[in-house]
């Protein structure tokens, strides 16, 4: 019988930020190339209104490399639930040709503290989505993030992503240097409920940058920075002239 000894969590002050960032980068690569990572998503199939798809039936006859999962969304017009299936292939061409995601060098200057003010009630803000042809979907934004960057004050809207604040932001690097539709960043809470940390070194290419089967939210006007955010991920790189699915 083996015994696992629990170790106390390290003090954040004792962690080397650059080493932590290297570990984050390695974890991103593993996640992207996993059997149900962003690169593996090859099909999203929505059932007709009112129907719930049969996973076992959909899985029958498919290669062992394929995983089928369920998903649900709310119809933007009727407000009714829609059910669908996602098909993930561990042997997808995008995985086989994937090399890396280019990134800016780690820069401690882009680790920013900000004020966080919770908002009472379930405030919802419209986010345009990349594949909704100009339409928008209301997402819960539980508070305001305020900070000053390069002398300009911003009030940012991060929505609730399964209990974590997810910031969708844009900046002048989008399109030429970084992903054109903007980037994502998970907001780190602190022991002080009124303070959060935005480590832009961990800004990442959204899922729709790896597969056209995703429908990602785009940055609202208030989340667009006027200066280049030269930190975090840039663009995916593929081998052999492979054209990324986005």
UniProtKB/TrEMBL annotation:
A Pfam family recorded for this sequence: DUF1684
Name by which UniProt lists this protein: DUF1684 domain-containing protein
């Amino acid at each position: 019988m083996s015994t696992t000894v629990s170790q106390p969590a390290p003090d954040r002050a004792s962690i080397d930020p650059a080493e932590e960032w290297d570990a984050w980068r390695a974890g991103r690569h593993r996640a992207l190339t996993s059997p149900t990572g962003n690169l593996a998503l090859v099909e999203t199939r929505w059932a007709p209104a009112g129907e719930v798809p049969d996973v076992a039936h959909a899985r029958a006859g498919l290669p062992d490399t394929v995983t089928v999962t369920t998903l649900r969304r709310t119809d933007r017009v009727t407000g009714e639930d829609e059910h669908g299936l996602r098909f993930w292939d561990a042997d997808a061409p995008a995985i086989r040709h994937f090399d890396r995601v280019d990134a800016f060098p780690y820069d401690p200057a882009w680790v920013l503290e900000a004020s966080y003010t919770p908002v009472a009630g379930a405030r919802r803000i419209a986010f345009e989505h990349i594949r909704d042809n100009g339409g928008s979907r209301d997402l819960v934004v539980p508070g305001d993030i305020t900070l000053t960057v390069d002398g300009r004050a911003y009030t940012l809207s991060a929505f609730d992503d399964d209990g974590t604040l997810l910031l969708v932001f844009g900046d002048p690097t989008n399109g030429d240097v970084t992903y054109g539709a903007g980037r994502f960043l998970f907001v780190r809470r602190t022991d002080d409920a009124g303070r959060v940390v935005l480590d832009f070194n961990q800004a990442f290419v959204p899922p729709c940058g790896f597969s056209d089967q995703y429908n990602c939210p785009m940055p609202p006007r208030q989340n667009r920075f006027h200066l280049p955010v030269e930190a975090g991920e840039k663009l995916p790189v593929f081998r052999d002239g492979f054209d990324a699915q986005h």
